[in-house]
Target: Transcription factor zinc-finger domain-containing protein
Amino acid sequence: MKCTSCKQGELIPCFIDGQFRAHTCTSCEGHWILIEDYVAWKDRNPQFSFDESIQCDIDETNQAILCPVSGTIMRKLRLSTRTEHRIDYSASVGGVWLDKGEWELLKKEGLAGSLNAVLTAHWQRNIRINSTKDNFAEIYKDKFGQDTYKKVKELREWLYQHPNKADLRAYILADDPYSAEK
Ligand SMILES: [Zn+2]
Model:
């Protein structure tokens, strides 16, 4: 199989960390992993944990990569909200392309044991939701200032779990809560 990332090397069978079957490029050292191989290994080794104290040096390719099996463009999927880093996924074949260093990044992020979960729609949706939340938090912090934001956030959390929240909100927002006039 030809490497579709660097377009120079051959994808040669290997075992990643001596654990599960994959292919590695002879030139760019990226990995091609079939999810069924990964899941089968995980089923046999449910307790296995990867070393997370690891350094990684990534040769990321930002351009679209073709699936080495089907030749179609692979989707780029984010790993988590903590990193902007994206891996390439061929949904039709069920394969993942990891650039050199990306496997090490997965280990560092504690995600090497969850590679199959990262690829699910549910996981990807959570990343989008949490990224949006982070963005809003930044906007509020900017607008209110760090201390005020912290205070108002605490007040809001306290208010929203209070059984009298509707009355309390009316009290806070009224121009004069002690006036009989509306
Ligand atoms: Zn390559």
Q: What stands out?
A: The chain has a mean pLDDT of 91.
